[in-house]
Amino acid sequence: MISDFFHPDVGGVENHIYMLGASLIRRGHKVIVITHSHPPDRVGIRWLIPGLKVYHIPFPTLVSSATLPNFLTFLPYLRTIILRERITVIHSHASLSSLGHEGVLHAHLLGVRTVFTDHSLFGFADAASILTNKLLEGMLRNVDAAICVSHIGRENTVLRANLPPKSVYVIPNAIVADHFCPARSAPPTDTITIIVVSRLAHRKGVDLLVATAPRICAAFPNVRFVVGGDGPKMIDLLQMRETHFLQDRITLLGPVAHRDVPSVLQQGSIFMNTSLTESFGIAILEAACAGLHVVSTRVGGVPEILPEDMISFAAPTAEDVFRAMSEAIAHVARGDHDPHRAHERIRGFYDWTRVAKRTEVVYRAVLATPPYPLWTRIQRTMSLGLFVGPIYTIILIVDCLFFAFLEWWMPRENIDYVDVRWDATRFEKVAGHGNA
Amino acid sequence: MTSVNNAPPEWERVLWRPQPFPDNYVPPSFLSALSKNPNVLPYRYWPLVLGACAISQNLSVVFIFLAVFTRLLDHTLDPRLLVALSTAGFIGGCLVWELMGHFESDAASSERRTCFSSSIQLNCANRSCSALGARTVKASLLVFLALIALAPILRTLTAPTSADSIWALATALFLVHAALADYTYSASPVQRERLTSVLSTNAAISATVVLASRLHNDLAVFALMLFSVEAFALFPVLRRCLQQMMPAPVQALVTGTLGLAALAAPLPGLCAAVLVSVTFGAPAALIWAQQYKHEIRGPWDAATPRGFEGDSGAT
């Protein structure tokens, strides 16, 4: 697995890679993760708990943990790691990770097959999207299969990267249901607490929250809000709280660490999500799993993740969010919502082992097809476009020459191969009770 | 979006239920929510030509200015005649202005009135015609006198600079003027002038200042400056108001007259080619390029949030 985004950063992609890796290890595969280093302490090689080996490549980061895209410098590291670990499939994550892109570019030199998981949705209209979409298309010309986390994500990726739909799989995220248990005592029905946990940014629809929260507080005197998260829109929330004198009704927690999210969720009975775009909405799933009734805007992949009776939808307008929230508050106040039943249902829906099994199917399908020969690769790259095509082709050819040079400079016989595997049974004996 | 049907296994667009389909199954509804060019307004030719008139009028004014300058330079135009013509043009412009204001006051549309008054006197509190007239006369006299006083300075300001540099600088400044000018149609008159249009006026006036140093006497410099202030500072305001109020034939007439006058410039062939291509060629090219418009919209685009209706105060 290769991605710029990995532990110790936190986020959906980071967690996905870790959980998928851990589940694959439990199914008897060997998984290593390659990411960039986090000086001063996360450097070199580290082991994470279920025997997941992490290589930290010493590349400086540019912004928000992404490394500078440079196409070639990763090859020496990657070649050594792939050879010494005897890797057969490279699984690259996240469309903005340049390490992931490079991994896919170099893989064919080493006879390794590639799978790519796209975690996000992009539009087609603005300049940034146009650029990243072209970058993605260039990379996915060389990939053997792609995985998306929702049906809408798949449609988006197929369009963005001009892929045949057959080569794109849908495998959802999953959650560890044990981490998100409902509170032992049922939440009180006289005071209803609404939880919002989100990055406070425009894309997360904080404007809608700011517009509706005062109305909700005015209409329902027994409602209070708990808002977790931080971001550029925090100031708007603070202003709203000041202007409407809601200091005792709206609690702003500021940044919440991922391990504290369950305890925040347990305080409430309704989860409110006002995102404007969302490819999967793992936060919604976590909240539903913790037994909260979910009210969300009907955007992106959110309608796909839960059955209609566990979630209320609203159009992304303040009027409709207010309507949906009023209905949800009435529903919860009547005591119609059973947190423990909701938790048990979610437990049956999503499971990392199932995700790992479905991913395995993709790996097997990829390994069963013949790889593209170099000439086909060049032709496919040339067909990218009038200007981009030749540029990518030059990169591809220089990459091949660089690889030939490395073969001469660092011969394969001199590489220190890893032959000792992590002893899972011994590990289970020592610490196996920790993870189910 | 989802269709619930229990009897045969039918594909559903959900993730929470395991389905008897491979993960790369392509459902018949794949990409059904995709929409292409949903909010594209196809252009029509003649409205575009009308819009392009603003650009060709502005270019024509630049060409006319160049014609006047070259004639001043080789003494074929008497500066006194130019001053007289400029004054007459100014008075004529003011009359047109007042007439338009009169029409408009009948219609009792106060926003247009602001448009008129904002041109010469910003924040003119009393908008009665006589007060407006008095203020206009006062302001124009001030500009007139200031230009007379400044003429000797302006003539020698860039005199030591070599002629080549002056031509190059003037060309560049006129290009900036043409590129940044405000060609927008029916912009709300209350709205403040944009920075680019201020820059555009400044570029044209600076070009005049550098060109003025090539002239031979103070009177010629004064005449050129007066003409330039009228052509580049006052005319655009009049042009915008004309554009908003006048029907298409008047627009065409003004553009045609200015275009013909522009043929007096040096290199009339080039000027004519530029004007014709801007007025008729560019709109045709835009319409032709419309066929390549390919905008994709779908449910993955970020939704646009809407607040409560009539509740603008909700921060």
Automatic annotation (TrEMBL), chain A:
Q: Where are the transmembrane segments?
A: 384-406
Q: Which InterPro entries does its entry note?
A: Glyco_trans_1, PIGA_GPI_anchor_biosynthesis
Q: In the record, what terms sit under GO molecular function?
A: phosphatidylinositol N-acetylglucosaminyltransferase activity
Q: Which Gene3D superfamilies match?
A: Glycogen Phosphorylase B
Q: Pfam families attached here?
A: Glycos_transf_1, PIGA
Q: Which UniProt keywords apply?
A: Glycosyltransferase, Membrane, Transferase, Transmembrane, Transmembrane helix
Q: Which GO terms describe its biological process?
A: GPI anchor biosynthetic process
GO cellular component terms listed in the entry, alphabetical order: glycosylphosphatidylinositol-N-acetylglucosaminyltransferase (GPI-GnT) complex
List the protein's name.
Transferase
Q: Which organism is it from?
A: Lactarius akahatsu
Automatic annotation (TrEMBL), chain B:
Annotated membrane topology: Multi-pass membrane protein
Provide the leader sequence positions. none
**Example GO BP:** GPI anchor biosynthetic process
Q: Which intervals of the chain form a coiled coil?
A: none
GO CC term, one of those recorded = glycosylphosphatidylinositol-N-acetylglucosaminyltransferase (GPI-GnT) complex
What name does UniProt use for this protein? Answer: Phosphatidylinositol N-acetylglucosaminyltransferase
Give the record's pathway. Glycolipid biosynthesis; glycosylphosphatidylinositol-anchor biosynthesis
Organism of origin: Lactarius akahatsu
Q: Which GO terms describe its molecular function?
A: glycosyltransferase activity
